[in-house]
Design a protein that fits this description.
The complex is a heterodimer of chains A (211) and B (478). Chain A is of the alpha/beta class and 211 residues long. Chain A has helices spanning 43-50, 73-79, 96-101, 108-114, 119-122, 131-144, 161-178, 189-194; strands at residues 2-14, 17-28, 31-36, 58-63, 66-67, 81-84, 149-153, 181-185, 197-202, 205-209. Chain A has a 6-stranded mixed beta sheet with strand order 6-7-8-3-9-10, with helices on both faces. Chain A has a 4-stranded antiparallel beta sheet with strand order 2-1-4-5. The chains are: A alpha/beta (211), B alpha+beta (478). Chain A binds chain B through residues 48, 51, 53-54, 73-75, 77-79, 81-83, 85-87, 89-94, 98, 101-104, 141, 145, and chain B through 1, 6, 9-10, 13-14, 345-346, 348-356, 469-471, 474, 477-478.
Chain lengths: 211, 478
């Protein structure tokens, strides 16, 4: 049963210059999706539409069969979606555990420990953690919010290969072990290889790629 | 995480910004609180000034326009040297103030005292007077002033403290054939309370006090606050120690006729000079007084002169307060706008996790309020330290910028005179500066004004960022 659906979604920054054209598709829980495409192809735009950060020019985005605009995008962001960014986007005056508690519906500490952070690291200044550790905190925040959908925009873009592999594994585990619908926008073929489904955007159209 | 916890974490973790904002708010609060306390002190000083000076007005027979003024010729006098005959007239009003009129005026709200006197210059039998410093006509040697009153307690010489009742009691409306004299005069003549003074009523025929004998009993002794200075000129009958206060009935008998049955002038003192117009209007509306016979002369100049520097100070402080509040709001809004722009990343994160814009603005507001609570509290002490000095400096400026006549307010007040009686004046509030102290009421006002400034500043500073869509904010982040 699809949790997120795109129905004939189009998006244009300016009239006549469409980034997405009549895109349709569905995303399910328990799976990790990778969205590939060249720069400027509309990957992040698609993620923004799925996350309720923007509205399509045409068409609609459905969550559990209901248009996300019906109850408000803020409601959608707060209850259905967790976002993970390339630059981690942690709050610099909060410790890792406080960052996770920001929207946590679950206990923050066990999640952070499960993602590999030590006890002394979760109460340290968040900026004193390594890039990999910061991205783990961001993923922990997404998991602790207990949202069914995790949208990640280039989550491994700033990480070395080994750490990127670890983070990708965590995201995959989030889909498989926690039953989340994980959507990852990436340039990385390695990340795409780990995905259950790979979607590609070409000239404004979304297509599933055979792996 | 609650909005309060987020705000608390920001304030405690971003110590540099917190300290800077604390310093800015402390300076602003100190200025606002100082302004408020000076304003309050200025208002209090004005009230004090009004109460100390009071207001005065005189009501007297309109000798020029009253239809009740009568002019009667009296017996012609022949000059012994030249042999020429001179005619003289007796002028009086058939409508005069009665004790009932005085009681009615005293009942008007805001009237403090209402006094009236009948003056008679007459000799008392065997009374030895203190000599004056200037000689008088031989005819008037041995004469003194007998002041006929309804009530000595309300007489201006007593209400101003120029005279004090040292022994016995005051003359009241119900008294007849009683007197109050000075303690010095009593000692000089070996008189005491209960003794009698004897005089004679005026005879128009004889042009002198040759009429029937009138005895008045001494019921009180007064002491003057001060006597005339060395070198000061005063006649025997004007010397303060020689004054004799008598009741109205005795005064009328001394006068010897039916013409002066009441008073041709009243002196009214009111509590608050600001109420002058209302009190005068209410007095004029009283029944039983025929206003065709009388005219009113208001004396508010002393108050107006003395109040001018305080009024100027008040205007100055109000203007300064408005400027301080507006400038504070602008400065705070500018600083917070700059800081909000540096927090765009944080706003993006909050929006992406579903925190409402209103909750984000609320957090910023709570952060500033948390710091403000401490800064405003500390400003109580900083304002207390400087408010007095600034207040008196402003007062000096106000006195210097006032009209030239206002320069010596104290001397203006001290120069008030009624006839030959130099009245004792209390020191004015402006004499020793104003007493500025920061009160808890000022602090409460500061919190109200300060919080209003902060709400305006935070709202204004958040507008630009909050108008952006979440996606635009996230684009700015990246």
């Amino acid at each position: 049963m699809p949790i997120l659906e795109l129905k004939n979604v189009s998006y244009a920054y300016e009239k006549g210059k469409a980034v997405l054209q009549n895109v349709s598709g569905s995303l399910e829980t328990g799976k990790m999706y990778a969205i590939l495409g060249p720069s400027g192809s509309g990957k992040t735009t698609l993620l923004s539409l799925l996350g309720g950060l923007d509205v399509p020019t045409q068409g609609s985005v459905l969550f559990d069969g209901e248009d996300i605009a019906a109850k408000g995008l803020e409601h959608h962001r707060r209850n259905h979606i967790s976002l993970i960014f390339q630059s981690y986007n942690l709050i610099d005056y909060m410790t890792p555990v406080e960052n996770v508690q920001l929207t946590a519906k679950l206990d923050a500490t066990p999640i952070l420990e499960r993602l590999g952070l030590e006890q002394d690291e979760i109460t340290r200044n968040v900026l004193k953690l390594s890039g990999g550790q910061q991205q783990r905190v961001a993923i922990a925040r997404a998991l602790a919010s207990d949202a069914p959908v995790i949208l990640a925009d280039e989550p491994t873009g700033n990480l070395d290969a080994d750490t990127a592999e670890e983070i990708t594994a965590i995201l995959k585990e989030s889909a498989h072990a926690f039953g989340k619908c994980v959507v990852v926008v990436t340039h990385s073929g390695e990340v795409a290889k780990q995905a259950d489904v790979v979607l590609e955007i070409k000239r404004g159209h979304l297509k599933e790629r055979e792996m | 995480m609650s909005i309060f916890k987020r705000a608390f974490l920001y304030v405690t973790r971003k110590r540099g910004k917190t300290l800077l904002l604390f310093a800015i708010l402390l300076i602003m609060a100190t200025f606002v609180l100082t302004g408020l306390s000076i304003w309050k002190a200025s208002e209090a000083a004005q009230l004090d000034l009004r109460q100390s000076l009071g207001g005065k007005f005189d009501v007297f027979v309109d000798w020029s326009n009253s239809p009740y003024v009568v002019k009667e010729p009296v017996k012609d006098e022949v000059d012994e040297e030249t042999g020429k005959t001179s005619s003289s007239f007796l002028m009086y009003s058939t409508v005069q103030f009665t004790p009932e009129n005085i009681a009615a005026i005293k009942g008007v709200p805001g009237v403090k005292y209402c006094s009236a006197r009948q003056d008679n210059l007459l000799p008392f039998d065997g009374l030895s007077l203190f000599p004056g410093t200037i000689s008088t006509d031989a005819k008037y040697q041995g004469y003194t002033k007998a002041l006929g009153v309804c009530n000595t307690e309300d007489d201006e010489l007593f209400t101003t403290g120029t005279l004090t009742l040292a022994e016995g009691r005051h003359i009241t409306t119900d008294d007849t054939h009683v007197a109050i004299i000075s303690q010095d005069l009593a000692e000089r003549n070996e008189l005491k309370i209960g003794d009698y003074l004897t005089a004679h009523s005026y005879s128009v025929e004889d042009q002198g006090f040759t009429g029937p004998e009138i005895r008045v009993q001494i019921i009180g002794l007064f002491t003057p606050h001060a006597v005339e200075q060395f070198g000061e000129t005063v006649t025997t009958y004007d010397k303060i120690q020689n004054r004799v206060f008598v009741d109205l009935q005795s005064s009328k008998e001394f006068d010897g006729g039916e013409i002066n049955y009441g008073f041709s002038a009243l002196h009214v003192t009111i509590d608050d000079p600001q109420d002058m117009a209302r009190v005068v209007a209410e007095v004029k509306a009283l029944p039983g007084i025929d206003w065709k016979a009388f005219t009113v002369e208001v004396d508010n100049e002393t108050y107006e002169n003395a109040a001018a520097p305080l009024a100027t100070l008040n205007e100055l402080v109000v203007t300064l307060l408005v400027v301080i509040i507006v400038v504070s709001a602008i400065i705070l809004a500018l600083i917070l706008t700059l800081w909000t722009k540096t927090r765009i990343h944080e706003i993006g994160v909050f929006l992406s996790v579903g925190i409402r814009k209103s909750a984000i603005i609320g957090q910023y507001l709570i952060e500033v309020l948390l710091i403000a609570v401490l800064a405003f509290g500390l400003s109580y002490f900083t304002s207390n330290a400087i408010a007095g000095q600034i207040g008196n400096h402003l007062l000096e400026q106000s006195m210097q910028t006032g009209p030239e006549d206002d320069n010596d307010v104290v001397s203006v007040a001290a120069s008030v005179e009624i006839g030959a009686d130099n009245l004792v004046q209390k020191p004015l509030p402006t004499e020793n500066g104003i007493q500025v102290s920061v009160g808890l009421d000022n602090l409460a006002q500061l919190y109200l004004i300060g919080f209003a400034i902060i709400i305006v500043a935070v709202s204004a500073s958040s507008i630009t960022v909050m108008r952006l869509k979440p996606r635009e904010i996230l684009s700015k982040m990246s």
